Amino acid sequence: MIGWLSYPIFFATVASILAIAVLGLNLQWGITGLFNGGVAAFFGAGAYGLLILGGTPQPDHMGGFEWFYPVALLGGVLFSGLLAWIVGLLTLKLRHDYLAIATFGVAVAFENFVRNAEWFSGGAKGMRGFERPLESWIADPFWFNLAFLGVVLMALMGVYALLERLLRSPFGRLLRAIREDEHAAQSLGKTPSRVRLTAFVTGSMIMGLAGGLYATFYAFVSPQDVVPTLTFQVWAMLIVGGAGNNRGGVLGAFLIWAAWTASGWGLSRFAPVELQLYTGTLQYILIGLIIVGMLLWRPQGLLPEKLIMSQ
Amino acid sequence: MIQNLVDGFLVGSILSLGAIGLTMVMHVLRFANFSQAELLSIGAYAALVFDGVFGQMLPLFQSTLEPLSLTGALVLSMLASMLLTGLSAVVIDQLVFRRIRDSGEELSMVFASFGVALIIRNGISLLFGLKSHLYSNEIVFAIVVSRDPLLLIKPDQVFILIAALVLMVLLHLVLSRTTFGYALQAVAENPVLAQVSGVRLSFMVAMIWMIGGALAATAGVFYGLNNQINPVMGRDLVLPIFAATIVGGIGSIYGAVLGGFIVGIASNLALVVLPSGYSPAVPFLIILLVLIFRPHGVLGEART
After folding, report:
1. Measured between beta carbons, which residues in chain A are less than 8 angstroms from residue B239?
2. Are A90 and A97 a contacting pair, CB within 8 Å?
3. Which residues of A touch B30 (CB under 8 A)?
4. Whose CA is closest to B222, among B4, B21, B11?
5. Between residues 203 and 232 of chain A, which touch chain B (CB distance below 8 Å)?
6. Which phi and psi (to 5°) does residue A235 adopt?
């Protein structure tokens, strides 16, 4: 029984963590209309930030400050926010292409940096030396993973509740107003670039939280975790689920993660050996087809954005 | 140092050719096309296939043009590849981008372009394999231009540079001397007004893809001649090409040419101080510098 249950728990944990990142992207793209081509960088900033601040001292890379876990997690989140603030400050006053290119660039540069800067992040072999909180209390891995799933689900529900509230608040209305007609919002005395920056930084910090939880789960992070694949997956999740709809984002995260793991498993099991080398290639084509297909035939996603009438 | 400068100039000419189409599309269709660099891959692989076919059909063209490593067949292949890549760009626009544009979701085109890039890049991997290819297995020795400071140049590189410059001059003549060129500039300036003056917008959009695709094909072939052809060349070139358009100013064709050379030279000079592992991140640093000091680029203008 327990052995049979451990895979669904593992699956739900990773899918829920990715769902948090999708909610962050939904705030940026779905609600505010900001393109983020570097989800992996903001996710990675949270993950690396946590391991540097909360890990045990290691001889070959930075970190080992052994901060109290929630503080270290918050540190990683703030690190993501700082990265987003710098990129946003430079690009959000310009036309939207600049944000797209700069965020894409920041992801390339981030992955390149953590891969090369061994003194900082351990280079290609990644970062270890993190002791998961409470693991000494809950010795059995099954119960630990179950408890951790509970923590992740709580974080997911917390972010969801926050965004739902925000959607209905005056600030949420302002975000949509700026997305729909920037000049009209400006004429009412709003400053679009500042509001956009707030939304962009908040969304990136949510991605940082997802990254921090991911690094907690594996007690390890390497450059392989921040490759562009992650960005494409998170996009596909939001586009399939429905940009602008938080519930859709969570649904998309579970669906796409199921499709991704199932296709990987199916190919490794049933595909001929010479094709197995191309498992990743085929999965990328699948993700590309999902993105393009959805945009062509169902751009609103499975659960379209709900119009919120303001009284 | 001088070697870095010369190499940078060469890489710059390749980036310029790739960036011209990108900046035109970004200006007229108003979206950052992340699949532009995949057109370089299509061009490089198409030339590889044509080269094989022409080499078989026309044995006369199989001998190398001394002292270059390239054959007459490859030159013919490059021309065929320009046509094919340009047509592919038009077809991709018709199949994907035009339909999203028509539905009014301009920003979604950026997502779509990433999807298209993933499909093309990995489709090429499936067709041609993950390993790299070369146009010619012959080893051509570099010429020692000077010993102190050391400067090595391969004959192929001289050819690439001259061919790239000739293409740019041709483009300049078309833009500045022909009615078609004026129409193209008018569309870039103000699409609605151009239509009022009797320019057919759909035809001009197709021509922009055609020209951008053809120049990208030459960039891809030159990149393959200078380095090697592999399925991820588009992934490696997309950021430098974007950096070139931003340095030059989005929408400025002459800016894209200048931007390509600036990015190529700056990236190679950066290797003097930075370990080479960091080179993929250098275009991003260039983008940051431009955004801090001159957000609209060297030759660009503010436009919202």
Report:
1. 104-105, 108
2. no
3. 97
4. B11
5. 232
6. -60, -50
Q: How far apart are alpha carbons A258 and B247 in whole angstroms?
A: 42
- Tens-binned pLDDT, residue by residue, of chain A (311 aa): 667 888 999 999 999 999 999 999 999 999 999 999 999 999 999 999 999 999 888 777 777 788 899 999 999 999 999 999 999 998 988 878 889 999 999 999 999 999 998 888 888 888 887 888 877 788 788 888 999 999 999 999 999 999 999 988 999 999 988 888 888 988 988 888 899 999 999 999 999 999 999 999 999 999 999 999 999 999 999 999 999 999 999 999 999 999 999 998 998 888 888 888 888 899 999 999 999 999 999 988 999 988 766 54
pTM > 0.80: yes or no: yes
Tell me the chain A residues in contact with residue B246 when contact means C-beta distances shorter than 8 Å: 98, 101
Q: Does B104 touch chain A (CB under 8 A)?
A: no
Q: Contact at 8 Å (CB) between A26 and A244?
A: yes
CB contact B280 to A (< 8 Å):
yes
ipTM for this prediction: 0.91
What distance in Å separates residue A99's CA from the closest CA in chain B? 10
Distance from CA of B48 to the nearest CA of A (A): 21
Nearest to B241 by CA among B72, B86, B41: B41
